[in-house]
């Protein structure tokens, strides 16, 4: 009886922890890869560049976890992650992309806190960099799919 309850019980906390870990790693790699598209790459010191990567990654994790929590409030159920996975994923992506477009505008146009280099591809009409927008489609999708996947070790442990 206990083992069948463990199989049916959604493991939302483990899924959220995996999402946070995959998010951290994914955004750290992405930030390091696309920082040459910003002016800090040619104008900043190595210390400033390193700080920017770490700082932005930390912000990315907070945005991702907030997006997941908001998506779960709006579209999730008590059976998540076994149910409603696609609506929650789509909401996570929408919230992340929406915030990114706003943040890029705020920090580039209004605050002038950072700037794109001429090599940054920019999406017409919204004038947001292509790589920051793609970052909020690719990383949350991979992190989410990795987080909600049924790992074979978990099933074997639950059956034992």
Strand elements, count: 2
Largest sheet: 2 strands, antiparallel
Biggest sheet strand line-up: 1-2
Portion of residues in beta strands equals under 5%
Q: Segments where pLDDT lies below 50 for 5+ residues?
A: 1-6, 154-160
* Rg, Cα atoms, Å: 18 Å
The residue-averaged pLDDT reads: 90
User: Helix and strand string, N-terminal first?
Assistant: HHHHHEEHH
The shape is elongated
Number of helices: 7
How many structural domains are formed by the residues?
Answer: 1
What is the SS-derived class? Answer: mainly alpha
Distance between the termini: 12 Å
Percent helix = over 70%
What would you note in describing this structure?
By secondary structure, the chain is mostly helical. It has one domain. It is built from seven helices and two strands; from the N terminus they run αααααββαα. The chain has helices spanning 2-8, 12-34, 40-43, 46-75, 85-110, 130-148, 152-159, and strands spanning 122-123, 128-129. The chain has a two-stranded antiparallel ribbon with strand order 1-2. Strand 1 and strand 2 (128-129) form a beta hairpin. The radius of gyration is 18 Å and the shape is elongated. The relative contact order is 0.17.
């Amino acid at each position: 009886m206990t083992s069948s309850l463990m199989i049916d019980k959604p493991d939302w906390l483990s899924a959220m922890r995996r999402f946070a870990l995959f998010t951290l790693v994914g955004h750290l790699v992405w930030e390091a890869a696309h920082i040459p598209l910003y002016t800090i790459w040619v104008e900043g010191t190595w210390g400033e560049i390193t700080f920017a990567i770490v700082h932005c990654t930390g912000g990315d994790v907070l945005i991702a976890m907030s997006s997941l929590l908001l998506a779960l409030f709006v579209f999730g159920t008590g059976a998540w992650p076994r149910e409603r996975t696609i609506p929650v994923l789509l909401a996570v992506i929408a919230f992340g992309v929406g915030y990114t477009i706003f943040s890029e505008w705020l920090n580039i146009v209004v605050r002038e806190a950072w700037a794109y280099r001429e090599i940054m591809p920019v999406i017409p009409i919204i004038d947001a960099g292509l790589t920051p927008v793609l970052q909020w489609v690719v990383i949350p999708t991979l992190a989410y799919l990795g987080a909600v996947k049924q790992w074979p070790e978990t099933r074997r442990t639950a059956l034992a």
